[in-house]
Design a protein that fits this description.
It contains 35 helices and 27 strands. By secondary structure, the protein is of the alpha/beta class. The chain is elongated and about 135 Å long. The protein is about 45% helix and about 15% strand. It has 7 domains: about 150 residues, DNA repair protein MutS, domain I (MutS, DNA mismatch repair protein, domain I, 3-Layer(aba) Sandwich), CATH 3.40.1170; about 140 residues, MutS, connector domain (Nucleotidyltransferase, domain 5, 2-Layer Sandwich), CATH 3.30.420; about 100 residues, no CATH class; about 100 residues, MutS, DNA mismatch repair protein, Chain A, domain 3 (Orthogonal Bundle); about 220 residues, P-loop containing nucleotide triphosphate hydrolases (Rossmann fold, 3-Layer(aba) Sandwich); about 35 residues, no CATH class; about 30 residues, no CATH class.
C-alpha cells in the first residue's frame, strides 16, 4: 500500500462523508468561486484551528495519526526525518502533509521539543459516528487540548530524569537611569516547585546560567532590549516573548492568590513587586499552555540575592561543572561525583552543584549529614537500598495533579511511600540524627498513613502505561468490577447458569438459551412446554417472542438484563476502573503536600548518602569552612582527572595550595587574599592545578567532602575562571576579544571574598601588549580587589613582581630532562620556571624534525641577550630585529654502501662452502674499493 493510499484510508475512517480530495477555500467573486471548489469541511476546520494557534506546530488528530499540513508539515518533516507527502490543493498549489502515529507521538514530540519547537495538540473530542448523524457535511469536532513547550512538559518519556525542567519568567523595573532590576519566577511543572528571586541586570546572565531553564518567557519589551540580545543568543533555552506589555503587579498578585486560594500573600513571605510581576507572567503562561487546567504548584519560595555562590556562564563552561565543553554530561564534575540512586536525588545534586550555598550554617548542616553517613556504613547501605526502590514521586504526583497520569504513576507513589516508611523506621532506630538527616526523618515519620495500603489493595501487579487500556485494578478490590470483567471474559458461564436454573424451575430439561443477530439472547423450549409458559404463573416471568414449527422462543427480564450487562461489560469495566482511578487520584492529592515533603526529604537523603559513598570510596575529607579569607588545601586532587587516570591505572599527583592572607592583616582588619603565580611547561599540569582548587571550593560549599588530605576554606562569594581560548566569530569577536571581555567581567565584579582563576591572560596578542595587560591585571587584583587568586602564565617576567607585591608568591610545576626528553612530574613547588619547554611539547605533538631543529636555532639566538637564562632580551638586542642565520641546508642523501648491500644479500644458512668463499672475496673487494 502506498503512503497516499494509506493516508486516504485513514481519512475515510475518520470522516467517511468527506470528499476524497480537499480543495482550497474559494476566492472572492462568483466567477473565481466557480473556477475553484471550496475547501473541504475538514481542511476549513484545520485552517481555523491553526489560525488560533500561530507560531506552534499543530498536531491535528485524524484517527490513529496526528497530521501536519502546509508549512508545519515541511518543518516537521525536516526536523523528524519523515516523509513529506501531499493532500489536495489550496490556493492552486498542493497541500504539503506529513503525519506521526498517535502511539509514538511522545517520541516525535521529544525530538521537536529538543529542537526548540512548540506544539499544539489537537484531539478529536467526539466519536466519528456522532458526526455522521449530523449530516454529510459535518466533521468530527476537534479542540486543542494542550500546548506543548520545552518548559511545560510533564510526560516521563519527554523529560530528562536527572535534570530539572524549569520554565523561567522575567519581569523588570527601572532601578536607575542606567540599570534595571529583574524579577525571576522559576517553575518546574513536572515537580510543582516554584521559586522567586530578584537580581540586578549585571547578575542576570549568571543567574540564568545557574538555573539553566528549558524555556524563558517575558514581555516583548524585555525581549527586544538590545542590551539583552547577546544573552538570548547565548542561552540554550527556548526564548518566548509573550507579545504583551509589562506585567501588571496588581493582576499578578490576583493570579497568585487565585492559584493558591489565599486572601493574602503574607504567609508566603515578603515579595517585591518585580517578583510578583514575574510570578504573574509565569502563571499566565502556564494557564495559556495548559488551557486552563489547574497545575498543582508548591507555594512560592523566595531565594534571596547572595544566597548562592555566584558563578557566571563563562566560568561554568571553563570548569565543566555539569557539562563538558562539547556539551556532554560524561566527563563533567557532575558525572564524576554523582553516586545518587534516584532521579530526584540526581536533580537535587545537580541543583546544588549549579548553585553552591554561601550560608555557612546550612553548609555545616550538610557536612554533618555526610559525616554521619560516612561513619554509619551499614545504615548508609540500607538507606541506599531503600532509596533505590523509591520511584520519582514528585513527577508522578505532578502528572496526577494535571490529569496526565497513568496507573504507573499511582504505583510510583505506592512504592515511593512504602520506601519512605521503611527509611523512617530505620532512622528512628539510629539514635541522634544530625543536619538534614534529622529533618528528613521528621518529614517521613507520618507520611502516607493508610494511602500505601489503599494503593496496594487497588493496583494490580502488572500495570499498563495508559489508564484507558484498563486492567490495572486488582481482582477482588470491587465486586461490581469483578462481575463486569467476568461477564466480559466468561459470558457463556453466566448464560449456562441461568439456563440451568430455568430448566430446573420449569421442569424442562431441553430448555436452551440461544443467541442470534435478530433476537439476541432468547429462551427456546419445545412447543408443548411453550404453551404452558404462556399461562400463569409463568407468563409473568417469560415473554413470548417467536413461535416456530416445533418450538417456541421466549425472553425474560432477567435474561434481558444479563444480555445488556454482557453487551456493555467491556465499557462498564473500563468505566469502573476509570472511576476507581479518579478516586485514588483524589486520595493522593489530599495528601499532596505531605507527599511532596517526603519526596524532598528522600532526595536530600540520596544526595547526603551519595556524598558519603563518594568520600568513603575515594578517600575524600570534610572541609573546614569559616568567614575568613583562608584558602589552604593539602594533598588536593582534580576529581575528574583523577577518575580518568584511575580507569587507566595511573596515579594522580596531589598538590597543595595556600592563598590565605596573613594573620597580621586578619588581626588588623585589613585581611586580603594571596595571589599565586603559577609558571611551568605546557602539559605540565598548570590548568589542572588551577581548576582543581576552584572545584574544591565548589564542592565544599555545595555540602560535599573534597578530594584532599585536608582543606580549610573561607567562604567564597563569587567564583571566576578564565581558562582556555575560544573565539566568537558569529559576533565578530576574536579569541583575544573574548579573552578580554571575560577578564573585564572578572576585574569589574570580583570582591575581596571572591576566588579568581586566570590562565594565560594576554597570550592572544603581541608579546609586549599581552605582557603589559597581564602585569596590570595582577596589580589590580593585588591592590584594588584583594581577592584570592591563581594566575598561570608563560610570561616569566611576571614572576619578578613577587619581590614588589607582598601578597604575591610564585609556584612552578616540576619537570626533569632525561636523554633529551622532558618528563612532566606534575608536582607544584615554590619558585619560578625559567623555561616553558615548548619545543619538547612540539616534538611530542609530531611537528617535523626540520621545524624543531630550526626552532632550536631561533630560540638559541633569542636567548643570547640574557646569557641563556631563558629571559627575553631588550627589544633593541633581539635577533629578530637583525638578520637571523639562514636556515641550514638539508643534509645530503646518504651514499650507497656496497659492503652493507652485499652483507644484506647473504643467507649464511643457505651457502655451500664454495659459495661462502666466493662471498668472502667479494666482501674484501668491496672494502678495498
Amino acid at each position: 500500500m502506498t503512503m497516499d493510499s494509506d493516508l486516504g484510508r485513514r481519512l475515510l475512517r475518520d470522516e467517511p462523508h468527506e470528499p476524497a480530495d480537499d480543495a482550497p477555500p474559494p476566492p472572492r467573486g462568483r466567477r473565481a468561486a466557480a473556477a475553484e471548489p471550496a475547501a473541504s469541511p475538514m481542511m476549513a476546520q484545520y485552517i481555523e484551528i491553526k489560525a488560533a494557534n500561530p507560531g506552534l506546530l499543530l498536531f491535528y488528530r485524524m484517527g490513529d495519526f496526528y497530521e501536519l499540513f502546509f508549512e508545519d508539515a515541511e518543518v516537521a518533516s525536516r526536523a523528524l526525518g519523515i516523509v513529506l507527502t501531499k493532500r489536495g490543493k489550496h490556493g492552486g498549489a498542493d497541500i504539503p502533509m506529513c503525519g506521526v502515529p498517535v502511539e509514538r507521538a511522545d517520541d516525535y514530540l521529544q525530538r521537536l521539543i529538543a529542537l526548540g519547537h512548540r506544539v499544539a495538540v489537537c484531539e478529536q473530542t467526539e466519536d466519528p459516528a456522532e458526526a455522521r448523524k449530523r449530516g454529510s457535511k459535518s466533521v468530527v469536532r476537534r479542540e486543542v487540548v494542550r500546548l506543548v513547550t520545552p518548559g511545560t512538559i510533564t510526560e516521563e518519556r519527554l523529560l530528562d530524569p536527572a535534570r530539572a525542567n524549569l520554565l523561567l519568567a522575567l519581569a523588570r523595573r527601572r532601578a536607575s537611569e542606567s540599570g534595571w532590576t529583574y524579577g525571576l519566577a522559576a517553575v518546574d511543572i513536572s515537580t510543582g516547585r516554584f521559586t522567586l528571586s530578584e537580581i540586578d541586570g549585571q547578575g542576570l546572565p549568571a543567574e540564568i546560567a545557574r538555573l539553566e531553564p528549558r524555556e524563558i518567557v517575558m514581555a516583548e519589551a524585555i525581549h527586544a532590549d538590545p542590551d539583552l540580545a547577546r544573552l538570548w543568543r547565548d542561552t540554550s533555552a527556548a526564548v518566548t516573548p509573550l507579545g504583551r506589555g509589562e506585567a501588571d503587579p496588581a493582576s499578578a498578585e490576583r493570579a497568585l492568590k487565585e492559584q493558591f486560594g489565599v486572601a493574602t500573600l503574607d504567609g508566603f513571605g515578603a515579595f517585591s513587586r518585580t517578583e510578583i510581576a514575574a510570578a504573574g507572567t509565569v502563571l499566565h503562561y502556564i494557564a495559556r499552555t495548559q488551557l486552563g487546567a489547574r497545575v498543582p504548584l508548591s507555594p512560592p519560595a523566595r531565594q534571596g540575592a547572595g544566597g548562592s555562590l555566584l558563578i557566571d556562564a563563562a566560568t561554568r563552561t571553563n570548569l565543566e561543572l555539569t557539562r563538558t565543553l562539547s556539551g556532554e554530561r560524561a566527563g563533567s564534575l557532575l558525572a564524576a561525583i554523582d553516586r545518587t540512586v534516584g532521579a530526584a536525588g540526581a536533580r537535587l545534586l545537580a541543583e546544588r552543584l549549579a548553585g553552591p550555598s554561601t550560608d555557612l550554617a546550612l553548609i555545616r548542616r550538610r557536612h554533618d549529614a555526610v559525616a554521619f553517613l560516612v561513619a554509619e556504613g551499614a545504615l548508609r547501605a540500607e538507606l541506599r537500598a531503600d532509596l533505590a526502590r523509591a520511584p520519582d514521586m514528585a513527577r508522578a504526583l505532578s502528572r496526577i495533579g494535571v490529569g496526565r497520569a497513568g496507573p504507573r504513576d499511582l504505583a510510583a507513589l505506592r512504592d515511593g511511600l512504602d520506601a519512605a516508611r521503611s527509611i523512617a523506621t530505620r532512622l528512628a532506630g539510629a539514635g541522634a540524627l544530625p543536619g538534614e538527616i534529622g529533618k528528613a526523618a521528621r518529614l517521613l515519620a507520618t507520611v502516607g498513613d493508610g494511602l500505601v495500603e489503599t494503593l496496594a489493595a487497588a493496583l494490580a501487579d502488572e500495570l499498563p502505561l495508559v489508564r484507558r487500556d484498563g486492567n490495572f485494578v486488582r481482582e477482588g478490590y470491587r465486586a461490581e468490577l469483578d462481575e463486569a470483567r467476568a461477564l466480559q471474559s466468561d459470558s457463556r458461564r453466566f448464560v449456562a447458569g441461568l439456563q440451568t436454573r430455568y430448566a430446573a424451575e420449569t421442569g424442562c430439561r431441553s430448555l436452551r438459551i440461544k443467541h442470534n443477530n435478530l433476537l439476541g439472547f432468547y429462551i427456546e423450549v419445545p412447543q408443548a412446554v411453550g404453551e404452558t409458559l404462556l399461562k400463569d404463573p409463568w407468563r409473568e416471568t417469560f415473554v413470548h417472542r417467536q413461535t416456530m414449527v416445533d418450538a417456541m422462543r421466549f425472553t425474560s427480564v432477567e435474561l434481558g438484563e444479563l444480555e445488556s450487562r454482557i453487551a456493555n461489560a467491556a465499557g462498564r469495566a473500563l468505566a469502573l476502573e476509570l472511576e476507581i482511578f479518579e478516586a485514588l487520584a483524589a486520595a493522593v492529592m489530599d495528601q499532596a503536600a505531605a507527599i511532596n515533603a517526603a519526596a524532598t526529604a528522600l532526595a536530600a537523603l540520596d544526595v547526603a548518602a551519595s556524598h558519603a559513598e563518594l568520600a568513603v570510596e575515594l578517600d575524600w575529607t570534610r572541609p573546614v569552612l569559616d568567614e575568613s579569607l583562608t584558602f589552604r588545601v593539602e594533598g588536593a586532587r582534580h576529581p575528574v582527572v583523577e577518575a580518568a587516570l584511575r580507569q587507566a591505572g595511573e596515579p594522580f599527583i596531589a598538590n597543595s595550595c595556600d592563598l590565605s592572607g596573613s594573620e597580621n592583616e586578619a588581626r588588623s582588619g585589613r585581611e586580603a587574599g594571596q595571589i599565586l603565580i603559577v609558571t611551568g611547561p605546557n602539559m605540565g599540569g598548570k590548568s589542572t592545578f588551577l581548576r582543581q582548587n576552584a572545584l574544591i571550593a565548589v564542592l565544599a560549599q555545595m555540602g560535599a567532602f573534597v578530594p584532599a588530605r585536608s582543606a580549610h576554606l573561607g567562604l567564597v562569594d563569587r567564583l571566576f575562571s578564565r581558562v582556555g581560548a575560544a573565539d566568537d566569530l558569529a559576533r565578530g569577536h576574536s579569541t583575544f576579544m573574548v579573552e578580554m571581555v571575560e577578564t573585564a567581567a572578572i576585574l569589574n565584579q570580583a570582591t575581596r571574598r571572591s576566588l579568581v582563576v586566570l590562565d594565560e591572560i594576554g597570550r592572544g596578542t603581541a608579546t609586549f601588549d599581552g605582557l603589559s595587560i597581564a602585569w596590570a591585571c595582577l596589580e589590580h587584583l593585588h591592590e584594588v580587589t584583594g581577592c584570592r587568586a591563581l594566575f598561570a602564565t608563560h610570561f616569566h617576567e611576571l614572576t619578578g613582581l613577587a619581590r614588589r607585591l607582598e601578597r604575591l608568591s610564585n609556584a612552578t610545576l616540576k619537570v626533569t630532562e632525561w636523554k633529551g626528553d622532558v618528563v612532566f612530574l606534575h608536582e607544584v613547588v615554590p619558585g619560578a620556571a625559567d623555561r616553558s619547554y615548548g619545543l619538547q611539547v612540539a616534538r611530542l605533538a609530531g611537528l617535523p624534525a626540520s621545524v624543531i631543529a630550526r626552532a632550536k636555532v631561533i630560540l638559541a639566538d633569542l636567548e643570547k641577550g640574557d646569557g641563556g637564562r631563558g629571559r627575553r632580551a631588550p627589544v633593541a638586542e633581539l635577533p629578530l630585529f637583525a638578520a637571523l642565520p639562514p636556515a641550514p641546508e638539508p643534509p645530503p642523501a646518504p651514499k650507497p654502501d656496497a659492503l652493507r648491500d652485499l652483507l644484506g644479500g647473504l643467507d649464511p644458512d643457505g651457502l655451500t662452502p664454495r659459495e661462502a668463499l666466493d662471498a668472502l672475496y667479494r666482501l674484501k673487494a668491496a672494502r678495498d674499493a
